[in-house]
Design goal:
By secondary structure, the chain is of the alpha/beta class. It folds into four domains: 137 residues, Resolvase, N-terminal catalytic domain (Rossmann fold, 3-Layer(aba) Sandwich); 120 residues, Hect, E3 ligase catalytic domain fold, CATH 3.90.1750.20; 112 residues, no CATH class; 36 residues, no CATH class. The strands form four sheets. The chain has a four-stranded parallel sheet, sandwiched between helices. A three-stranded mixed sheet has the order 7-11-12, covered by helices on one side. Helix 6 packs antiparallel against helix 14 and helix 8 packs antiparallel against helix 9. It is globular. It starts with a strand and ends in a 6-residue tail after the last strand. Bound molecules: zinc ion. The site of zinc ion has 9 residues, from loops.
Length: 474
């Protein structure tokens, strides 16, 4: 069943990731994923959940509404940027996976968590557990008085001056001329100009860096736009904890836009992104000699196409040279194999579930309660540091055991194959390895026979011979 009506859930929170991922960027990435999958966005659920804590019991109305809509069939797919946008509570994740199983809606994240396999769901649940631990650790490290100050939107007063802010004003007052330059540079970046263009403009206007009063360089300009302070974002130990109450050169949204642009620019130059580019390379075996065939792009008379061939010049894995006798177009083979894989995934029945999930939430709650109590006593000074950390480590390892059991149990319970097809149909570049993994659940290998050269007619169907996994499966 192909999901058509998607609910996108975006969440802003006070964690590191939240800072890098404003609500608009999350939504944009989710919409792009939907487009690739051929899904329609029915509704966006924006949550302003600035607690970002697993201990907080704050209600999330948008989340609740979305799950209700999925239950009622108003939407039949949910897309989030990443699993920790959905939830940072493992119990909530477990509940979510149960809902998904019961109501059969599709679920996808732009980071490519694969909920179609047991392993994928296990990874998903474990990721959820890790996300929860991160927020707990963060809560522990927090120096309360400083945090309280910052939670009121008051940035830390220390540190060197940042361009745009008045010297000695503790980031509370701006320098209008510098703000003007920052805003001009912002408009330039939005109009596809580069940090280098900003360097030239700022230098030409006689502007100098705030510290050493030197001329601007690309690195220095980038550093300004990378600074959270410029977007009025208050951080505590690298965690985004809210917006400054004082004026700042860019709004949070503008600052986030800049991050997207700067990320995109560095991304285009990054080498080493070339990976396996063909879905079935490795699966194709020469019908003449059995060696693994290569797949390559070729350009002949200005036309670019893929071909697959038995390589006679290289020693194969078996130590022998290929026969070099088979050489043919790859796309026809790919189309045939796509039909086979799609059909197999389509008919694959959902696996019967194993034993019912263990309900460990009671035990987990008790342990969480004990940890909270411990923390309270330690904060109140009723406990030696050493005793505190000892007991904490002990309780935490018990908690971890329970969570792994809970996760494994949730995985067994919520296993579905419903969205394997959705994963399969996303033929974007980034999804290639996941699609190859799906291929390997269907196809063992494919013998490819020669069809002769220069033939105009499409090849005969038996010019390839597919060996499915487990042979009787197809
Ligand atoms: Zn061969």
């Amino acid at each position: 069943m192909k999901p058509k009506r998607v609910g996108i859930y975006v969440r802003i929170s006070k964690d590191r990731k939240g800072q890098e991922l404003g609500i608009q960027r999350q939504e944009k990435a989710c919409r792009e994923l939907c487009e690739r999958m051929g899904w329609t966005v029915h509704k966006v659920y924006p949550e302003n959940d600035t607690s970002a804590s697993t201990t907080s019991r704050k209600k999330r109305p948008q989340y609740a509404e979305m799950v209700r809509d999925a239950r009622d069939g108003v939407i039949d797919a949910i897309v989030v940027y990443s699993i920790d946008r959905l939830t940072r509570r493992i119990t909530e994740l477990t509940a979510f996976l149960e809902e998904q199983k019961e109501h059969g809606f599709a679920f996808a994240t732009t980071e490519g968590e694969d909920t179609s396999t047991a392993n994928g769901r296990m990874i998903l649940t474990i990721k959820g557990a890790v996300a929860q631990q991160e927020t707990e650790r963060m809560a522990e490290r927090v120096n309360t008085s400083l945090l309280q100050r910052r939670e009121k939107g008051k940035p830390h007063a220390g540190g060197p001056r940042v361009f745009g802010f008045e010297e000695g004003s503790n980031f509370q007052r701006l320098v209008p001329e510098e703000v003007e330059l920052i805003r001009l540079g912002y408009d330039m970046l939005m109009n596809r100009q580069t940090p280098g263009d900003i360097v030239r403009l700022w230098n030409a206007k006689g502007s100098r860096t705030s510290g050493a009063q030197t001329a601007w360089s690309i690195q220095k300009v980038k550093r300004i736009y990378r600074s959270e302070r410029v977007g009025g974002i208050v951080t505590y130990k690298g965690q985004d904890i809210g917006d400054s109450v004082y004026p700042h050169p860019l709004t949070r949204e503008e600052w986030e836009n800049v991050q997207t642009i700067l990320d995109g620019r560095s991304g285009t130059k990054k080498p080493g992104t070339a990976k396996r580019k063909h879905l079935y390379s490795g699966f194709l075996k020469c019908g003449g000699c059995g060696s693994t065939m290569r797949v390559q792009w070729a350009t002949i008379q200005g036309r670019r196409f893929r071909r697959t061939f038995c390589h006679s010049g290289a020693v194969g894995r078996n130590g022998e040279l290929g026969c070099g006798k088979v050489n043919r177009s790859y796309s026809w083979i790919e189309e045939r194999l796509n039909e086979v894989v799609e059909a197999a995934l389509n008919h694959r029945a959902p696996k019967p579930t194993a034993a019912p999930a263990e309900d460990l939430s009671g035990e987990i709650n008790v342990l969480e309660e004990r940890i909270r109590g411990l923390r309270k006593r330690w904060k109140a000074g009723d406990m030696e540091d050493e005793d505190y950390f000892d007991s904490l480590a002990h309780l935490r390892s018990q908690l971890q055991d329970l969570r792994v059991r809970e996760a494994a149990s949730a995985v067994r319970e919520a296993r579905t194959e419903t969205d394997a097809l959705a994963v399969w149909r996303d033929d974007s570049e980034q999804n290639l390895e996941r699609r190859r993994a799906l291929v390997s659940t269907v196809i063992q290998e494919v013998k490819v026979y020669s069809v002769g050269r220069g033939r105009r007619k499409p090849p005969e169907i038996d010019s390839i011979k597919i060996t499915p996994i487990g042979a009787e499966g197809l």
